[in-house]
Here is the input.
Amino acid sequence: MHSTQTRFRHAVLSAGATALALLATGCSNVSAGAQTGGCRDAGDWSGREQAAWLRTAVAFHGTTDGTDPSYAKASVVVRGPRTGDVRVLCRPLAVQVEFWTLTATKTRPEMSFVMRYGLSADGGRTRSVAFPAGLPTGQDGTCVRVLVAAYAGAPLSGGELPRMTGDLATAGDADVRFGTARIGVHRLLPAQGSACDAGRSTPSPSPTASTGWDIYHP
Here is the structure.
């Protein structure tokens, strides 16, 4: 009797060990599959983490030297997957691409909202946003520059809008500050024409469609 019970317990323990081994193997295979062929779960990412992902995905085309005053070939590109890249997300992010113009005045640059384009991006395919038509280029003698930003989430609130330090004629990307950490990438495009040359900036009356630098836009 004792021997029978011993053999029974041994059989139960062996079966349990086998089941655990099979379960471990299955979990290992699932983990390996998620690592090599799966996607990245960004469901609990913070705004800062979403911005970091955007910095690896967003590129500006046709804006490097400012030689084309029409911006006709300029675009903001959210790139798709590249060889060896594992940036593809399980669920797409809501991405905003927003454009402003900055015009020199007698006191400080005045910001005008131009366009905001919303899209979804997960790194699975390339998305492109063309620059708005009819952007001012300063050919009328005003010192005017274009600012563009790509960020995740809802449109910017009043306290998140960009602000600039330094002179508009010589300012660079580092002189633009946003009141939020969710900005993925931004670009203050090169000044065009001679109106924004250092020491030759000629302030002009603000366009009637402009809004103040600190006032919330649509």
About this structure: The first strand starts at residue 58 and ends at 61. The chain has two helices and nine strands. The CA atoms of residues 46 and 184 lie 12 Å apart. The chain has a mean pLDDT of 74.
